[in-house]
Design brief:
The complex is a heterodimer of chains A (112) and B (110).
Chain A (H helix, E strand, L loop, with lengths): L3 E4 L2 E4 L5 E7 L5 E8 L3 E10 L2 E4 L7 E2 L9 E3 L8 E8 L7 E2 L3 E5 L1
Parallel strand pairs in A: 2-11
Antiparallel strand pairs in A: 1-3, 3-8, 4-5, 4-9, 5-6, 7-8, 9-10, 9-11
Chain B lengths: L3 E3 L4 E4 L4 E7 L7 E6 L6 E6 L3 E5 L2 E6 L4 E6 L8 E9 L3 E4 L3 E6 L1
Parallel strand pairs in B: 2-11
Antiparallel strand pairs in B: 1-3, 3-8, 4-5, 4-9, 6-7, 7-8, 9-10, 9-11
The chains are: A mainly beta (112), B mainly beta (110).
């Protein structure tokens, strides 16, 4: 089954404790991205990757890091999480940047 | 001015009615337009995409694109309670960037 998976689905953590949210897709998509979704603000792109070892900032990259060492995986790293990073996070993949996005199930993160 | 604008709603329609959702965008050069549906707590899923001016129909859904007026709309005929969700408009802007609107909440009342 073609899908995008994310883990964990729910995470409660404390300020400053490094965390990683994993994302994996099995559709051989070149383009992957991370979004955060907050009430009233919609989906905002954090980082994206056009291909292996090619990543770039989206609209709200502060406080986040990513890496793309393999085509299928695109982890999101929060080195020192803060309460303003409490949000619902989605990973997405597509063939090209402007194609239909296939979203993962989401990760609800709470930073205390 | 936001790049992609949608009325946040909620838009309430009775069961069986036509729901009309609208989206405006700022880049006259936009080429691709998408409608996603998102149930509460779930991930967005694609309903339709449209590239050319005019209407595109898929079952109960019709996407309408008017590039001259820079708007795209989604019509849902015979609305069902299961259509209650947030509808996200997404537009490719400035050549290579996909921008999402904040979404319109639709409530279909039985």
């Amino acid at each position: 089954e073609a899908q995008v998976t994310q883990n964990p689905r729910y995470l409660i953590t404390v300020t400053g404790k490094k965390l990683t949210v994993t994302c994996s897709q099995n559709m051989n998509h070149e383009y992957m991205s991370w979004y955060r979704q907050d009430p009233g603000l919609g989906l905002r792109q954090i980082y994206y990757s056009m291909n292996v070892e090619v990543t770039d900032k989206g609209d709200v990259p502060e406080g986040y890091k990513v890496s793309r060492k393999e085509k299928r995986n695109f982890p999101l790293i929060l080195e020192s999480p803060s309460p303003n990073q409490t949000s619902l996070y989605f990973c997405a993949s597509s063939l090209k940047r402007t194609d239909t996005q296939y979203f993962g199930p989401g990760t609800r993160l709470t930073v205390l | 001015q936001k790049e992609v604008e949608q009325n946040s709603g909620p838009l309430s329609v009775p069961e069986g009615a036509i729901a009309s959702l609208n989206c405006t965008y700022s880049d006259r050069g936009s080429q691709s337009f998408f409608w996603y549906r998102q149930y509460s707590g779930k991930s967005p899923e694609l309903i339709m995409f449209i590239y050319s001016n005019g209407d595109k129909e898929d079952g109960r859904f019709t996407a309408q694109l008017n590039k001259a007026s820079q708007y795209v709309s989604l019509l849902i005929r015979d609305s069902q309670p299961s259509d209650s969700a947030t509808y996200l408009c997404a537009v490719t802007e400035y050549g290579n960037k996909l921008v999402f609107g904040a979404g319109t909440i639709l409530r279909v009342k039985s």
